[in-house]
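Continuing the series of single-chain predictions for the mutant panel. This is the parent chain; the variants come on the following pages.
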Amino acid sequence: MPGEPLRLYIALVHYPIYNKRREVVATAITNLDIHDIARLTRTYGGECFFVVNPLERQIWLLERIVRHWQVGHGAMTHPNRKEALSLVVPVGTIEEAMERARDLCGARPVLIGTTARNWPGAVSYEEMRRVFSLGGAYMILLGTGWGLTDETLSACHFVLEPIWGRTHYNHLSVRSAAGIILDRLLGRSG
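Parent structure:
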């Protein structure tokens, strides 16, 4: 509904994800992804940064990383990082992230998939900016490994077109892709 505020949620998906053999796997959490995407989420006005991983040991690692920057030495030496990492919410599934976002904003967010592959019906960043201008709640799904599964992308309301550089090479790190995506969707021009 026009006039509603834009409510943005970011989800870094570690499962279900493809590996290079196109098998469905769970990928490992990395310290750099957590730091960088939390900072991006905060910079571009996201309300939560969900980290989707069903593996207990991976969630333990995530909580340890975040705790260091929230209450440890890192909290005192890098208060800006503490602020960004306060947005991190561990969840086991995409559905759990959707429910948590619904609890926060009163409605299930519109799902936006991302992929480095050509996807039928993918929308441009310009078109998605127009959709965002209407307001409402949105969750951007960022895939790790070799990307979100076809089933996950098919369940999304929108799938963004791939990021293409000047060459045929198209395998950005998720944190680099996240920065480009968020800036194209929400960055100020000029």
